[in-house]
Amino acid sequence: MFTGLLAVLLLVTSAPTAADDVAATARERQWQLAPLDMAKAWQVSKGRGVTVAVLDTGVDARHPDLAGAVVKGPDLTGQTGRDRWGHHGTAMASLIAGRGHGEDRAEGVIGIAPESTVLSVRVTLENDDPRREQQRTRARGRDSLARGIRYAVDHGAKVISMSLGGGSGTWEGSADEEEAVQYALAAGAVLVASAGNDGDGPNKKNFPAAYPGVIAVGAVDRKLKVAGFSNRREYLSVVAPGSQIVSADGSDSYVIGDGTSSAAAMVAGIAALIRSAQPGLTPLQVRRAIEASAGRKGHSRSYGHGVVNAALALDAAERLASRSPAENRRLAPYFGGGPATAAPDSRAVVISALLALATAMAARVVVLGGRGRR
Questions:
Q1: How far apart are CA 109 and CA 105, in angstroms?
Q2: Is 374 inside a domain boundary?
Q3: Which of 146, 147, 151, 344 has the highest Cβ tally under 10 A?
Q4: pTM, to two decimals
């Protein structure tokens, strides 16, 4: 089981000066903005008009950095009560669509796509919530991710962010989730998921990241070296910053922690930038633009296609948009979880020129998030 993004950086107090100081510190520590080349990317797109579904533990829309950015969706966990509610989901939402606050929005967390809208769909509980076992054993709780994907698509999400992973010893995936992923891709939605945080241990195959068509994201540190905890698998698409990442927490505080959850949220934000700038691209083309931005020759189980770059991804997306339909059809017939040259899984069946979907699977959902320090 993976743990959530739990490490507390600082808590915003009721004193205005203390709150301002904390918010300013949060912005200063967003080291990932430089290597992702966000200043240049924002000259092209900030994600306006794009809805990003955050399938997670819920999002607290009261946080000042998310004011006006969140649309509340359903709670599909089958649980009630707000204790231990929404911490991980709020963190992920801020990394995608955080808008900062204060004068010129210079304080707090700024997301990768600060003009996008977050659709919050609660599909799992926080890792420290004692009711998690109840969710796993209830039928409606077990299929929450599949239902969440379909809800997101039906309510206009063009990007779906899933910082989630298999837990409780079940790592095979599920037919319901597989079909929901297929449904989302057919509707034109881009799906992004965290690769997993046990790369320095079992390094297990992790769902939903391993479903064909989902962009699986690993994590790198400040030196842009793959983090020890980041899962290394053949279906890895790209890597992004995932160490010492500052994000929003609760209604008025911030956390700092490590995990592929943060990396996936950032790539979901980049997908939103592309969706806004080039709305006519298919999910495959958005994926190719993101992978092309990484610039790595070939594919690696540790880095995928390399470290993503938002500005270069937008450049690649513009080139793809200018190609003729015939040129785009020659991109690649493969749209799975790994390199185009990877051998297909023995359980896979080809259902179209772009989709190779595995069958007979069963999974449960937990938060991936962090290996952070409290």
A1: 9
A2: no
A3: 146
A4: 0.85
